[in-house]
Design brief:
With 166 residues, this protein is mainly β. Helices cover 14% and strands 66% of the residues. The protein has one helix and nine strands; from the N terminus they run H-E-E-E-E-E-E-E-E-E. It has an eight-stranded antiparallel barrel with strand order 1-2-3-5-6-7-8-9. It is elongated, with a radius of gyration of 22 Å. The termini are far apart.
C-alpha cells in the first residue's frame, strides 16, 4: 500500500511539473516584439534593367494571440547606380500559422510608403515568411515582400534577420 501511495504521489508530482512546464512555454498576450533584418531589395522597371542592393530594415509589432499580430517596418539604405533607397515605412496585419511550438509561417498585408532618391510612392503591400525560435524570446526569420506594384515598376525585398519578443 505504501508503494502504491508513493507511486501515485510521484506520478502526480511529475504530471504537475509537466503542466507547469507547458504553461511556462505558453506566450502571454499581447506580446510586443522588435527585430532587425538585412534587406535585399530590387526595383524592376517594366522596360529597362532591374536595380538591386542591400539595405537594413527594422521591424516591430504586437502579437495578440497565436494567429494574429500587427507589424511596422522601417528600412533604408543601398544604392545601385541610378536608384537609391532613402527610406521605406509601412504598417501591416500579420496572419500567423503555427506549424510547431518553435516554427511559424506568416503572411503580411498592409500599406507602405517608399522614398527613392528620384521618386516617392506608396501603395498596398503583401508578403510571406517564416520564423524559427532559437531561444525562449529569440527567433530567426526570413520573408519576401512586394512593397510596391506600380504601373511602371515593382519594388520587392527579401529579408533575413532576428526578432526579440518581450
Amino acid at each position: 500500500m505504501k508503494r502504491l501511495t508513493l507511486a501515485a504521489t510521484t506520478a502526480a508530482l511529475f504530471a504537475a511539473g509537466a503542466v507547469t512546464t507547458a504553461q511556462a512555454q505558453q506566450a502571454f498576450y499581447p506580446q510586443p516584439y522588435i527585430g532587425g533584418d538585412a534587406m535585399f531589395w530590387e526595383v524592376n522597371p517594366d522596360n529597362g534593367s532591374s536595380r538591386d542592393s542591400v539595405g537594413l530594415r527594422l521591424n516591430g509589432g504586437m502579437q495578440f494571440n497565436d494567429y494574429f499580430a500587427v507589424e511596422a517596418h522601417l528600412g533604408g539604405g543601398g544604392s545601385d547606380g541610378a536608384v537609391e533607397l532613402d527610406s521605406l515605412i509601412g504598417a501591416y496585419g500579420k496572419g500567423i500559422l503555427p506549424i510547431s511550438q518553435e516554427f511559424r509561417l506568416y503572411g503580411l498585408a498592409g500599406f507602405t510608403e517608399v522614398d527613392f532618391d528620384i521618386d516617392r510612392e506608396s501603395g498596398f503591400s503583401y508578403g510571406a515568411g517564416a520564423e524559427f525560435d532559437v531561444a525562449p524570446n529569440l527567433a530567426l526569420g526570413a520573408d519576401y515582400m512586394r512593397y510596391l506594384d506600380e504601373s511602371n515598376y515593382t519594388f520587392d525585398a527579401a529579408s533575413v534577420g532576428v526578432r526579440y519578443s518581450f
